[in-house]
Design brief:
By secondary structure, this protein is of the alpha+beta class. The chain folds into four domains: 73 residues, 2-Layer Sandwich (Uridine Diphospho-n-acetylenolpyruvylglucosamine Reductase, domain 2); 118 residues, Uridine Diphospho-n-acetylenolpyruvylglucosamine Reductase, domain 3; 122 residues, Alpha-Beta Plaits; 88 residues, Alpha-Beta Plaits. It contains 15 helices and 18 strands. It has a seven-stranded antiparallel beta sheet with strand order 15-12-14-13-17-18-16, with helices on both faces. The protein has a five-stranded antiparallel beta sheet with strand order 5-6-10-8-9. Strand 5 and strand 6 form a beta hairpin. The structure holds flavin-adenine dinucleotide. Flavin-adenine dinucleotide binds next to strand 3, helix 4 and strand 10.
Length: 457
């Protein structure tokens, strides 16, 4: 169960962006009782550790904290249970089960867990990060799907909270499971979850629409919601600098949907719009495509949409999901995962661009994101050749200023990636009363503070 020796641990102590902080030890439990044994030992030894799922989180929360001699409890072998209850429209799954495998099995029953992202996370990791993704506008975040959890507390007894319920209605008192959803691995170890799942989308219509400015991005979204809310499944933005990076680093197998000349003449914003339905009637596909064409036509007649490309969903989504990898290849970067009320999104974006120009004069700005739910991934990229110390200085100053700006805009410094050492400085700015309440919870569940890369106190 335990892996010792530095080379063996690289997989577990290097994060998705390649940042490494060596683990003191790695344990790979196979189920609940293994997790409890590890916790009892860690409690007795005061051995700190982080829980790790698929290790796709970008805020350093699932790898040991630098300088803290932490171990890793990897949940990758906790995969024994996947129980689909079709009449109840739920699935009960072990924490280490990955999203893609879960969805393959669900699809055989006409069902899906409609969390969509460019990575393949674990059930436990999605619960702990309260993953959002590209279809949140229609299906909500992971919290909306969690009906029950089994959680091991990092206390002397490795107490198990038996909250693994399959109920959609349950008001027997405060609902403790919500404390662990989005807790970023700081309060307990999720060993299994009951998830409410949805009927599989049978027909999907997608388009990329070009939009000139932020006001028009929001106007077109309002039109779509007014006319097709029940079918609107995604509204994803790629700004011009992001499109340029995708064009430059286009992964093999992905087709650039525009004429080659368009790489130097791209619109300020491209929006990926998706409509979908679970209605399997044969003629539904055509009506859905017709609906999308009509709506794009209306947006165009109103002057909000300047161009449009209709294409196979897989092709257009591949382009969208290529964004972060393409930007990553442009140079050392800091990625901010922000959200603000939708109505303020583009005003805040203008402020962010001005702030980057002022605080990080050597850097470039690019962004993309789930604008349909007020999310924006703001990426700041430095020249490869810039001296690391100078770059680090600029990055620290920028982080500070950005968190200040986003707090003033009543936004969130972590929209969907959770809390980790990467964004902890913003967490430390929360109101003292909120932090006191969180510290009290931490002391209750984790009295020796052995769990997690971030200490909530
Ligand atoms: C290319 C790419 C695209 C992405 N797109 C999105 C996106 O669109 N939306 C989005 O929300 N996220 C996105 N992410 C982030 C990431 O995939 C999610 O946060 C994911 O849910 C993390 O799950 P994981 O299993 O990889 O968890 P890990 O990365 O292993 O861990 C993440 C956090 O969960 C905790 N944790 C893991 N398992 C457990 C457990 N069993 N019990 C308690 N705590 C646990 C860890 O301690 C850590 O705090 C993306 C990541 C990548 C690399």
């Amino acid at each position: 169960m335990l892996i010792a020796g530095r080379d063996d641990t690289i997989r577990y102590d290097t994060d998705v962006l390649g940042r490494r902080s060596p683990a003191s030890w790695v344990a790979r439990p196979k189920g609940l009782e293994d997790v409890r044994s590890i916790v009892r030992w860690a409690y007795a030894e005061r051995a700190e550790f982080v829980v790790q799922g698929a290790n796709t989180g970008p805020v350093l929360a699932g790898v040991p904290r630098a300088g803290r001699h932490q171990g890793v409890v990897s949940m990758e072998l906790c995969r024994s249970m996947i129980e689909i209850d079709v009449p109840n429209r739920t699935v009960t799954a072990s924490a280490g089960v990955d999203l893609d495998s879960l969805n393959v099995l669900l699809a055989r029953n006409g069902l899906t867990l409609p969390i969509d992202l460019g990575a393949n996370p674990s059930v436990g990791g999605m619960v702990a990060a309260n993953t959002g993704g590209a279809r949140l506008i229609r299906h909500g975040d992971v919290r909306r799907h969690v009906l029950g959890l089994e959680v091991v507390l990092p206390d002397a007894h490795a107490t198990v909270l038996p909250l693994l319920r399959r109920l959609r209605k349950d008001n027997r008192g405060p609902d403790l499971k919500h404390l662990f959803i989005g807790s970023s691995g700081t309060l307990g170890i999720v060993t299994a979850a009951v998830l409410s799942v949805d009927p599989l989308a049978r027909h999907v219509a997608t388009a990329l629409v070009a939009v000139h400015d932020g006001d028009d991005v929001l106007r077109f979204l309002t039109l779509l919601e007014a006319r097709a809310m029940e079918h609107l499944a995604a509204y994803e933005m790629l700004s011009r600098p992001t499109l340029e990076a995708i064009a430059k680093h286009l992964p093999s197998g992905i087709r650039w949907p525009f004429e080659p000349s368009r790489t130097s003449d791209l619109p300020p914003f491209l929006i990926l719009v998706e409509l979908s339905t679970s209605d399997s009637a044969n003629d539904r596909h055509q009506t859905l495509e017709d609906d999308l064409t009509t709506l794009v036509g209306e947006g165009s007649a109103l002057g909000w949409v300047t161009d449009a490309w209709f294409g196979r969903p897989a092709t257009l989504w591949a382009l969208r999901h290529a964004a972060i990898t393409a930007l990553h290849q442009e140079g050392p970067m800091v990625a901010f995962d922000l959200s603000v009320p939708r109505s303020q999104l583009f005003e805040t974006r203008d402020q962010i661009i001005a702030l980057v120009a002022g605080s990080a004069p050597h850097a470039r700005y690019a962004d993309f994101g789930h604008v349909g739910d007020g999310g924006i991934h703001s990426i700041v990229i430095w020249p490869q050749e810039m001296h690391a110390e100078r770059r680090d200085d600029e990055q620290d100053r920028l982080r500070d200023a950005m968190y200040h700006l986003i707090a003033a805009a009543d936004g969130a410094f972590s929209a969907e990636h959770g809390l980790g050492p990467e964004n902890e400085s913003a967490f430390r700015r929360s109101s003292p009363d909120v932090r006191d309440a969180q510290a009290a919870l931490k002391a209750l569940f984790d009295p020796r503070r052995i769990l997690g890369a971030v200490d909530l106190s």
